[in-house]
Amino acid sequence: MHLSFYCVLLLVSYPVFSAAASYDYKQVLNYSLLFYEAQRSGKLPADQHVTWRKDAALDDKGNNGEDLTGGYFDAGDFVKFGLPLAYTVTTLSWGVILYEDAYVSTNLLDEVHEAIKWGTDYILKCHVDDYVFYGQVGNGELDHTYWGRPEDMTMERPAYQINASAPGSDLAGETAAALAAASIVFKTVDPDYSATLLEHARTMFDFAVTYRGKYSDSITDANGFYRTITYEDELVWGAMWLYKATEEADYLSQAEDLYQELRPEAQRTGFDWEQKISGAEILLAEYSSNATFKTNTQNYVDYLVNNQTRTPKGLAFIATWGPLRYTANAVFIALRAADLGIGNPESYRSFAQSQVGYMLGDTGRSFVIGFGENYPTHEHHRSSSCPDAPATCDWMQYGMNDSNYHILYGALVGGPDQDDQYTDIRYDAVHNEVACDYNAAFQGVIAAFVHLGY
Ligand SMILES: *[C@@H]1O[C@H](CO)[C@@H](O)[C@H](O)[C@H]1NC(C)=O
Ligand SMILES: *[C@@H]1O[C@H](CO)[C@@H](O)[C@H](O)[C@H]1NC(C)=O
Ligand SMILES: *[C@@H]1O[C@H](CO)[C@@H](O)[C@H](O)[C@H]1NC(C)=O
Ligand SMILES: *[C@@H]1O[C@H](CO)[C@@H](O)[C@H](O)[C@H]1NC(C)=O
Ligand SMILES: *[C@@H]1O[C@H](CO)[C@@H](O)[C@H](O)[C@H]1NC(C)=O
C-alpha cells in the first residue's frame, strides 16, 4: 500500500473510511497499459513489454479470406468481441482526450497511443465494405471449452459480420464512436491516420443509422455473452462523438433528435459496454444549449453518490457481474461532471476517491493485479495461468490452487459481492475475471487522479 499522505476530508456518511488514502496512481496507469498489452492478439511488436505473451491467432480471417488478425482478446478467454472492444477504444480515447497531461507526466503517451491503435488498426481491418463489418472473431462456445495459451489454440475461429440485411446499429454506433474518438487522439500526432479513422467513423455512423437493428440479433453467437437490450443509445452516443471529432453542427442536432426519439427502455441511465445514455448525456451537457442534459447528468451522479446501494464497506454497488467495473465507469462520469461544474464537484470528487480507494486497498486488499497489498493472484484468465511453453497448459491449470503463473499487471478484477465478500479463486468468473472493458474507464479515472494531482 502507498499511504504517502492523508487528506483531511472526512467521509461523513460512510465512517468506515475516516480519511481518503492516496496511492501511486502513476504506477496504476502504467500497469493498466501493461494489462492491455497482455490482451493483444495477432503479431506482437518488438517493443512489447509483456514478453510472456507471443504471437497468436494469426489465422483469424473473414469469410472471403480478409485479414482479421490483431485486436484484443476480450477477457480471460480468446474471443474477439466487437462491441466491448469498440467501447474500450472509445473510453480509453476519451480518457486521453480529457487527461492527456497525465499520460505526458508519466511518460506513457506513446504507450496509450499504441494501446488505442492496437484496437483501431483491427477495427479498420474489420470494416471490409461501407456496410459490412466483422463484429466478432471466435465462437463463444468453442472458445470456452479450451483452457490454455492463445499461442497454442487450434479450435475453429469463425468470423461474424453485420451487413445491410443483418444490421447492428449498437455495434456500428459504438464503433463509429471509437473511430471518431481515436481520430481526435491522433489528430496532431498522426494526421493521416486520424483522417482515415474519421472517414470510417462517418461511414460506420451512416451504417448504424440507415440499417437499424440490434447486433446480437444478427451475430447471434454474441447473445450468450454480450447481448444488447437497445441500440438507440449508441446512435446518440455515436452522433456526439462524430460531433466532437468534426465540429459539424449537423451531428449535434442529429444527436439531439435521436435522443428525443429514444424509447423509455433506451433511456435507462448508466455507462458501460451496453448502456451509453449517461455517457451521451454528459457529452450533450457540454455542447447542447438544451439544459435537460445537465439536469439529467446531475440527477444521475447525485443518485450515484447519495442513493446508490452500498456495500457495508462503502462500495457503490451497481451490478453483480464484475461490479468494480460498473463503479469505475460511473466514477468516470462523476469526475467529468465535476470538471464541467455540474452538481456538486467537491462531493463528486470525494466520492471518486472513496471508490478508487476501495479498489486499490482501503479494505486491506487491492483488486488490481500486481498492485499494492494482497492483490488477486488467482484471476480467471487463461494466458497468465499458463507456464511458459513448451510446458503443458490445460484444465489442470484452471483447477489447481497455485497462483497464476504470470503476474497480469494492471488488470482490475470483477470484485466483491454486495456484502464485500470476495474470494480469490480462478473458477469464479463473476468476481475474479478481468476484461478489456473493465479497465477502460478505470484507466481514465486514474488518469484524472494524476491530472488532479491526487
Ligand atoms: C512501468 O512498469 C514497468 C514494470 O514494472 C517498468 O519496467 C516501467 O519502467 C514502468 N514505466 C513507467 C513509465 O513507469
Ligand atoms: C450478413 O450477415 C449475416 C449475419 O452475420 C450473415 O448470416 C449473412 O451471410 C451476411 N450476408 C452476406 C451476404 O454475407
Ligand atoms: C430538450 O431535450 C428534451 C429531451 O430530448 C426535450 O424533451 C425538450 O423538448 C428539449 N427542449 C428544448 C427547449 O428543445
Ligand atoms: C437520495 O438521497 C438523498 C439524501 O439522502 C435524499 O434526500 C433523496 O430523497 C434520495 N433520493 C432518492 C431518489 O432516493
Ligand atoms: C485447494 O484449496 C481448497 C481450499 O483451500 C482446498 O479445499 C483443496 O483441497 C485444495 N486443492 C488442492 C488440489 O490442493
Automatic annotation (TrEMBL):
Alphabetized UniProt keyword annotations: Carbohydrate metabolism, Cellulose degradation, Glycosidase, Hydrolase, Polysaccharide degradation, Signal
An MF annotation (GO) of this entry: cellulase activity
Segments forming domain Glycoside hydrolase family: 25-445
Alphabetized Gene3D superfamilies for the sequence: 1.50.10.10
UniProt keyword annotation of Ribonucleoprotein present: no
Highest taxon, organism lineage: Eukaryota
Known EC number: 3.2.1.4
Protein name: cellulase
